[in-house]
Amino acid sequence: MEPMEHLKERYRSLEERVRLFILVHSDIEYVHGSSECVEGGAFAWSELSEESKYIQSELYHEYMSLIKQARKHLNRIGSSYLETYEQSCAEVKSYLQQDNLVWGPSLQDVFNSIKKELDLQRGLISQPVLI
């Protein structure tokens, strides 16, 4: 398998595991009084169980390994999208660490936001090299 195809396959595999982590092992709760500041309110992540913390740690380390390899690929081809890639990675890391506020009550919406970022990253590493 080509290195880029391997990266894309790792992204697909990670995406499914992230989906399960968010939808099955995670939860969010309304931040009291937040609807006075933000329409619809804000939501914070609930405390994870020990098992879920283990899954979170495994996913985070797998993601960090994946983006390190993808970043090398982007640098090697001289991609002009490295900054966009890094910003997208920061978003996903924040979701995986669950250190951000969420702007809607649906875990499916949370996963959709993560999926959008993972799709962007996969697209950026797939960009053709222009010579």
Task: Write out key terms for the chains shown.
mainly alpha
State the domain count.
Answer: 1
String of helices and strands: HEEHHH
- What percent of the residues sit in helical stretches (DSSP H or I)? 55-70%
**Count of helix runs:** 4
Shape: globular
Overall number of strands: 2
Poorly predicted spans = none
Instruction: Walk across the major sheet and give the strand order.
Output: 1-2
Distance between the termini: 24 Å
Radius of gyration (CA) equals 16 Å
Question: Please, what is the average pLDDT?
Answer: 93
Structural class: mainly alpha
- Specify the biggest β-sheet: 2 strands, antiparallel
User: What proportion of the residues form beta strands (DSSP E)?
Assistant: under 5%
Give your account of this protein's structure.
By secondary structure, the protein is mainly alpha-helical. It is 66% helix and 5% strand. The protein has one domain (3-125). The chain contains four helices and two strands; from the N terminus they run H-E-E-H-H-H. A two-stranded antiparallel ribbon has the order 1-2. Helix 3 (82-97) packs antiparallel against helix 4. The radius of gyration is 16 Å and the shape is globular.
